[in-house]
Amino acid sequence: MNAPIRSPRRHAAAPPHERLLCLDIETVPDRSLLPADWGAKFPKPLWHRIACIAFVEARIEIDADGGERYAVTACRSGGELGWDEARLLASFWSYFAQEPTRVVSWNGRSFDIPVLMQRTMLHGLTARGWHNAGTRQEGYTSRFAEGWHCDLMDALASFGACARLSLDEAARAVGLPGKLGGHGSEVEAMVGAGALDQVRAYCEGDVLNLFGLYARYGLLTGRMTRAGHEAALDSLTTYLTQARATRPHLGTFLDAWQCIPTSLAGNVG
To answer: Cα separations (Å) of 23 from 150, 159, 204?
Structure first.
């Protein structure tokens, strides 16, 4: 007797993600956990103490033709300068859980997200908004569910099939400023000197580059039309122009971007 034909398993539909977060963190080695004989090797995720969580936030809007465009609402670092890591993490996860959010990172699956998760666990906090949404195939923990979490470095490397680009290499290739205000290797010295405002400015520069790259990737993949892509960049320019008076590093980014002859918008022909 033939077995009954079973209908394909259906998964819960993804909620409409109306918020975009292009996310980056800065860390320093946690000397209290780092083994004494570890040497100069790069620490494991749990052994990184988070000094900054920064993001570009945008509303995801839909054109009449169905393509996406992004309206920038913020570029900032979470919390206040004096907050410790536990308070930064608790505040971030509380904010993250407020509404369905698409996350974009650079090397996030290998670094940023494991650090966030393991340090959250270390402090006895919850990240239920990350783990309880979606399904195994369509959710934040799925490598290929780009509508939930897009690790853009991984995606551009065809998920390990070719060499990976650094954020600076990719950004400069498409006419974005790339790294400004330092290098990741200098963050520990900045934190040690109490220059947390410099760390935040540096991290915010990275997420600005990431937002520009993600807009270009949206054009590549067909998620955005050319008009939507240009609207996203116009929105970023408007935000930076309005914010530069009180946050000079955003003006520095804008000036560096606009002075590059092969700008991102100019490359689209």
So the answer is: 10, 19, 9
Average model confidence (pLDDT) across the chain: 90
pTM of the model: 0.90
Phi-psi region of 151 (alpha: psi -120 to 50; beta: other; left: phi over 0): beta
Residues 6+ away with beta carbon under 8 Å from 143: 109, 151, 154, 159
With b for 16 or more beta-carbon neighbours within 10 A and e for fewer, the 188-224 pattern comes to bebbeeebbebbbbbbbbbbbbbbbbbbbbbbeeebb
- The H or E element containing residue 50 is strand 48-62
Q: Which fold has domain 19-258?
A: Nucleotidyltransferase; domain 5 (3.30.420)
Element containing residue 166 per DSSP (H, E)? none
* Distance of alpha carbon 188 from the chain centroid: 21
Mean pLDDT value across residues 152-167: 96
Distance CA 152, CA 223 (A): 14
3-class SS at 194? coil
- Domain limits, the chain: 19-258
Report how far apart, in Å, the C-alpha atoms of 191 and of each of 27, 75, 123, 230, 240 are. Answer: 9, 21, 21, 37, 26
Answer whether 58's CB lies under 8 Å from 73's CB.
Answer: yes
109 Cβ partners below 8 Å, 6+ apart? 143, 149, 151, 154
User: Reduced to 3 states, what is the DSSP secondary structure of residue 224?
Assistant: coil
Residue written as tokens 């498409």?
174
Residue 14 has pLDDT above 70, yes or no: no
